[in-house]
């Protein structure tokens, strides 16, 4: 492709498709969507149970059907979708290096939107002790086994984690003839609310809080795990370990580029428009922070698409920005940069925050030392927290989230 | 599983026991000399024991014990590797190494190490001030006191080298029996080896059984001369984002026991921190441990502060076949036509080709001679070095199966159809890098389960689930 595109969108999950649709709706001519797989939908494709699409399409879809709807929408909107295209490198100059069955090529565009989503952290990054046999997988892997290949990686796994996805993992197991031996949560509480509080007892799967794996045993395939629970070491016989949740942005393109990633979110740091430190590079969806629903990612992608459509009418923004800072129990904010803006509407009307751990106390937003918003409460990890992002925040020199913890 | 078919006649000049890096190199060397070789491996694939986990450094031998056999063989092995790596498609990343002193005490030892290195015949050694060392590698911590530069230390792919050695041996008629354990042996002018797959009649045996070197000697009825005392090493592999911070191998000042924790780039564009040195009795379990891995990460960031916070891609552990003594335990028994290559506790990757030449020489001392083959078949293996041209850059690769490591369908199919196809999932990973990247198979594991159905000793999928 010799003529540069107006916008290259990297990743065809809900956020990427929504961004591409919005760009086309706003009259942007050449929108190229690069998808490494041969379908659109991203992580929603192998989710057979979660309902998708209510807010964006006014009806409910299950994983694969939602993906097909996205494909239809993209085609009708005139998005140039290229399947089997895997982006290898993001250039700082608005180019990307791509490999496809045709070989490698460099594509160029006036703006790039990265919407590469999130994934669960594997066993290695969790530094779990023990042997390294076959059968230790994440929910995403399990679901692609059953959804795409009709295979199962185990029959009697121990399930680790208690996020919403953990529930989905258990349902996938039960629907495909696997029987979890137990469900372990390292903390003292489930990370998700109901139905995790009652599902395990309903299905007869023991839910052990304050429990962690201290040893995985098995030469070829998993044979057992040792767990520490209530101060004791116990052995659970099993043929697999299912690691659920602990999502992390799939932000390797940023990690390997000069733009880098944000220490808090592990995704690219972006400003109120979804624009990264490099003004040509935007990002939206779960690559910004782990992890939100498909519907949230879709709306976020649409907002970023709208901003990029407006941004194309001007010179790229200046690289200067101010960082948003925060006190410790806060794990991340999105956006984490702010730039003076000439755009009428930003992509984000709120700061999204997450806490690293459970905490009770007062969270305040300070502009140049002045608290303009605050809320007291009990804050839980992995829960979405929204704080207002007023236009005057863009004029401040210091933007800080203060947290006063109460014991 | 894809066993090499058992030979029509089970009679060979030489049986090599153990398909680690040393066994593969020995099989190649004897095959090149014209011997009819059988390589017998207990595991489902080559490199099932000590050889699968090491730091992937091609050593010069600068710190090997003076006038030791190890020094001689490391130097011979390295020299041969540098001669043959191109034609076999093997990797070589010319990084050089810095032996880093982090205290005055350690700095005081650098001069001795340098002197020893020169006595060992390595001339490219240079003592450096901290400032000079940090000029060649600015990411080193400013706690550096002094350093010794060793230009000839390089990084290689530790898995493709033995694969190439065996592939070349097979092209010369060597027979590879995997999943085959040697149970007993009797010598009566010739060896009669009882294996789990039947009887082998052979003229001589080379024991390259690594962690089971002493066990195999006993099974052969040879008087045991050493006992294996496994030494575990744990490693952490960091994301490719770390690569730019570690252009060189960073070695510590070694102690009597171990070379110590190394921080080095890998041929695949990652950064590796390790190994630990932990004595244990178990010869099977090489576990990783949370606390140790955390400590390795801390140590890595002390040495190169920019590594702090870079995500972990992989963790692994291996067992080194140490013995009561530090030295290699190479034993030739002419009266029994048996050679034991034991106690290769470290440097095996560097010394393998040297050990193979040495074993052939020892065998010549037994009075046997072979007729070298008239022609040498051209053999090469895929070069997976990050900086080389890879298949994803060529048209027609089919699809990218593993996006983290950019492994193509064509590469995986080629590995499955190769002369030494992978016998287990680890073997497929080592041959192609599929599933070795940052997501560790989150994306590709299911696809690999599909592509490898019926091909691996332990399949990835337990059985056929319900159809989607």
From TrEMBL, chain A:
Pfam families: Pyr_redox_2. The keyword Ribosomal protein does not apply. Residues 6-297 form the FAD/NAD(P)-binding domain. SUPFAM superfamilies: FAD/NAD(P)-binding domain. Keywords: Oxidoreductase. InterPro entries: FAD/NAD-bd_sf, FAD/NAD-binding_dom, Metab_Enz_Cyan_OpOx_G3PDH. This is FAD-dependent oxidoreductase. The lineage of its organism: Bacteria, Pseudomonadati, Pseudomonadota, Alphaproteobacteria, Hyphomicrobiales.
TrEMBL record, chain B:
Keywords: Oxidoreductase. It comes from Mycoplana rhizolycopersici. SUPFAM superfamilies: FAD-linked reductases, C-terminal domain, FAD/NAD(P)-binding domain. The lineage of its organism: Bacteria, Pseudomonadati, Pseudomonadota, Alphaproteobacteria, Hyphomicrobiales. It comes from the Bacteria. Residues 13-360 form the FAD dependent oxidoreductase domain. Transmembrane segments: none annotated. Residues 400-450 form the BFD-like [2Fe-2S]-binding domain. This is NAD(P)/FAD-dependent oxidoreductase. Pfam families: DAO, Fer2_BFD.
């Amino acid at each position: 492709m010799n003529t540069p595109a107006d916008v290259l969108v990297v990743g065809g999950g809900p956020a990427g498709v929504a961004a591409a649709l919005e760009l086309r709706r706003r009259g942007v001519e050449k929108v190229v969507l690069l998808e490494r797989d041969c379908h659109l939908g991203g992580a929603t494709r192998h989710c057979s149970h979660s309902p998708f699409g209510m807010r964006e399409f006014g009806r409910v879809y299950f994983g694969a059907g939602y993906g097909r709807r996205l494909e239809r929408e993209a085609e009708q909107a005139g998005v140039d979708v290229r399947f089997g295209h895997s982006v290898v490198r993001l250039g700082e100059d608005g180019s990307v290096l791509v490999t496809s069955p045709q070989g490698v090529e460099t594509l160029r565009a006036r703006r790039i939107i990265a919407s590469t989503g999130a994934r669960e952290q594997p066993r290695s990054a969790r530094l779990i002790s023990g042997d390294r046999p076959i059968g230790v997988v994440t929910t995403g892997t399990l679901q692609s086994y059953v959804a795409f290949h009709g295979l199962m990686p185990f029959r009697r796994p121990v399930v680790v984690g208690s996020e919403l996805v953990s529930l989905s993992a258990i349902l996938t197991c039960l629907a495909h003839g696997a029987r979890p031996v137990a469900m372990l949560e390292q903390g003292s509480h489930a990370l998700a609310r109901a139905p995790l509080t009652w599902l395990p007892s309903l299905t007869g799967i023991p839910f052990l809080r304050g429990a962690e794996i201290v040893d995985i045993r098995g030469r070829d395939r998993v044979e057992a795990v040792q767990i520490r629970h209530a101060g004791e070491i116990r052995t659970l016989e099993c043929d697999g370990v299912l690691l659920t949740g602990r999502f992390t942005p799939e932000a390797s393109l940023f990690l390997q580029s000069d733009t880098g990633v944000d220490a808090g979110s592990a995704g690219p740091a972006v400003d109120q428009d979804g624009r990264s430190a490099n003004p040509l590079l935007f990002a939206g969806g779960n690559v910004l922070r782990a992890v939100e629903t498909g519907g949230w990612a879709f709306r976020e992608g649409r907002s970023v698409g709208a901003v990029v459509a407006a941004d194309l009418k001007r010179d790229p923004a200046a690289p200067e920005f101010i960082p948003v800072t925060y006190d410790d129990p806060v794990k991340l904010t999105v956006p984490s940069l702010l730039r003076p803006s000439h755009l009428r509407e930003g992509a984000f009307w709120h700061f999204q925050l997450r806490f690293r751990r459970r905490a009770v106390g007062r969270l305040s937003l300070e502009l140049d030392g002045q608290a303009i918003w605050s809320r007291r409460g009990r804050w839980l990890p992995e829960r979405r927290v929204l704080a207002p992002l007023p236009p005057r925040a863009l004029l401040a020199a210091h933007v800080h989230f203060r947290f006063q913890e109460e014991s | 599983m894809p066993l090499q078919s058992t030979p029509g006649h089970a009679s060979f000049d030489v049986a090599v026991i153990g398909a680690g890096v040393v066994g593969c190199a020995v099989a190649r060397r004897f095959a090149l000399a014209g011997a009819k070789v059988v390589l017998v491996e207990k595991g489902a694939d080559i490199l099932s024991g000590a050889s699968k986990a090491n730091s992937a450094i091609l050593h010069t031998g600068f710190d090997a014990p003076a006038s030791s056999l190890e020094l001689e063989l490391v130097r011979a092995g390295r020299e041969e590797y540098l001669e043959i790596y191109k034609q076999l498609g093997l990797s070589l990343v010319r990084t050089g190494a810095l032996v880093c002193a982090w205290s005055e005490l350690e700095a005081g030892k650098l001069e001795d190490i340098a002197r020893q290195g020169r006595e060992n015949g390595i001339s490219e050694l240079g003592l450096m001030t901290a400032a000079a060392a940090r000029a060649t590698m600015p990411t080193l911590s400013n706690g550096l006191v002094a350093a010794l530069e060793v230009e000839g230390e390089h990084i290689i792919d530790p898995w493709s080298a033995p694969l190439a050695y065996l592939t070349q041996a097979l092209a010369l008629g060597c027979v590879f029996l995997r999943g085959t354990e040697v149970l007993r042996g009797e010598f009566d002018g010739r060896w009669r080896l009882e294996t789990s797959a039947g009887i082998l009649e052979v003229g001589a045996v080379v024991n390259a059984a690594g962690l089971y070197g002493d066990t195999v000697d006993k099974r052969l009825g040879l008087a045991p001369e050493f006992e294996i005392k496994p030494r575990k090493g744990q490693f952490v592999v960091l994301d490719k984002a770390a690569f730019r911070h570690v252009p060189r191998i960073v070695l510590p000042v070694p102690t009597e026991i171990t070379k110590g924790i190394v921080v080095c780039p890998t041929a695949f564009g990652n950064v590796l921190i390790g190994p630990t040195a932990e004595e244990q009795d178990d010869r099977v379990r090489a576990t990783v441990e949370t606390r140790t891995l955390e400590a390795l990460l801390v140590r890595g960031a002390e040495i190169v502060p920019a590594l702090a916070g870079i995500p972990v891609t992989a963790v692994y552990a291996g067992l080194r076949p140490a013995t009561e003594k530090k030295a290699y335990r190479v034993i030739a028994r002419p009266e029994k036509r048996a050679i034991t290559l034991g106690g290769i506790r470290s440097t095996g990757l560097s010394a393998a080709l040297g050990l193979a030449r040495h074993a052939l020489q020892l065998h010549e001392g037994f009075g046997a001679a072979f007729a070298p083959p008239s022609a040498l078949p051209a053999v090469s293996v895929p070069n997976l070095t990050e900086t080389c041209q890879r298949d994803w850059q060529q048209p027609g690769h089919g699809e990218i199966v593993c996006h983290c490591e950019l492994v193509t369908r064509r590469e995986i199919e080629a590995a499955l159809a190769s002369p030494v196809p992978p016998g287990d999932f680890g073997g497929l990973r080592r041959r192609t890098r599929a599933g070795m990247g940052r997501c560790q198979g989150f994306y590709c594991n299911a696809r690999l389960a599909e592509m490898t159905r019926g091909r691996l000793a332990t399949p990835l999928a337990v059985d056929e689930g319900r159809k989607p």
